[in-house]
Amino acid sequence: MVITIDPASPIAPFEQIRAQVADQSRAGTLPAGTRLPTVRGLAGDLGLAPNTVARAYRELEADGVIETRGRSGSFIAAVGDSAHRAASEAAIEYARRAHRLGLTRDEAIATALSAFDVVYEP
């Protein structure tokens, strides 16, 4: 696993870690079952506080990218189904909330597309 932190980046270090692990998992560079370094080990390697790495790992676990097996450590999860399932659940919750707020289907879709423009901005 290769993770680099750009201290001059406006992106927080935990987010840099999260994005790089997620990208490497999707690309297959980190295949399912790959054991990740310990929080303390990666923090030491990167010169970061352990809490920074722990936050990245928590967010990766919440996204279904990694799974933590207690004292055995953290591993790359089989992302395919869990990532699609989590995205689908989030989309359904968004649709329900938009409906409760009185948005039409087209307004809700336009709002979601605007959000993608913000998130996927180059």
Description:
60% of the residues lie in helices and 5% in strands. The protein is mostly helical and 122 residues long. The chain folds into two domains: 13-77, Arc Repressor Mutant, subunit A; 80-119. The mean pLDDT is 90. Strands 1-2 form a two-stranded antiparallel sheet. The protein starts with 12 loop residues before the first helix and ends with a helix. β1 (66-68) and β2 (74-76) form a beta hairpin.
Q: Name the CATH homologous superfamily of the largest domain.
A: Winged helix-like DNA-binding domain superfamily/Winged helix DNA-binding domain
Total domain count: 2
Overall mean confidence score, pLDDT: 90
Number of helices: 5
CATH-scheme architecture of the largest domain: Orthogonal Bundle
Order of helices and strands: HHHEEHH
Shape: globular
Going by helix content, strand content and strand pairing, the class is mainly alpha
Radius of gyration: 17 Å
Strand content: under 5%
Low-confidence stretches: none
Largest sheet: 2 strands, antiparallel
**CATH fold type of the largest domain:** Arc Repressor Mutant, subunit A
The strand count comes to: 2
For the biggest β-sheet, the strand order reads 1-2
Give the oligomeric state of the chains in this entry, treating copies of one chain as homo and distinct chains as hetero.
Answer: single chain
